[in-house]
Amino acid sequence: MRSTVIFVEKSAPATITELHDILSNDLISVKEKWSFEFKTFRLTVKNLPPESPRLMHSITFSHRDNKSVIVKNKSAIVTSAMPGSIPAALTLNGCSSASCESFDHLLTSKLSNLWTQRQTIKGDFGSTYQTSELTIRATNVFSYGGFKGLLIELECEEQIPDSEFDQRINRIRNYLRDMSIEDYKICSDIMDPQRRNFLCDLAQQYVKVLEL
Q: Which family does the entry's similarity section mention (predicted)?
């Protein structure tokens, strides 16, 4: 599986409708609604070396079993606060009380002396389009200050050469060009080519296009 994330900051709320119209000839089906929540935390500890990274990002995906990915300094961990996500063995040996707590809540409730939340960006009620080549997810993005832009998540479930994947992404970029959209951020980065992890790579791509 491969993914690419595109963020069009200079767009309007109606741009997502225009995207749907231009994709209509290629659609096999329109699938489930989806959402994401992107949070940025800043480390408040003083006297760290100047080169030490101070930002950490948390991305929660409704369409990925509500899993959250924590990204810091090009490393990532996947967490979940879903009931049943705690292995039974951890409860039986006393390592867990079997109650789930999100990582975000842990930071704000128990580690607030170390981390402060800097921003929250959300995409709600996004649309999912299935074509013969890609699963295309699109949603309008909002923050505290209002509308931020259009985010497009592109996913290919097939095992195809990188060159063919790039061609499929370029077709979407051509659609954006047809919509007179040429100014946007795009990321297809892979964290570790030797040990690919789809969800961690996807989260890193969100960070690259959404971080200030």
A: Belongs to the Mediator complex subunit 20 family.
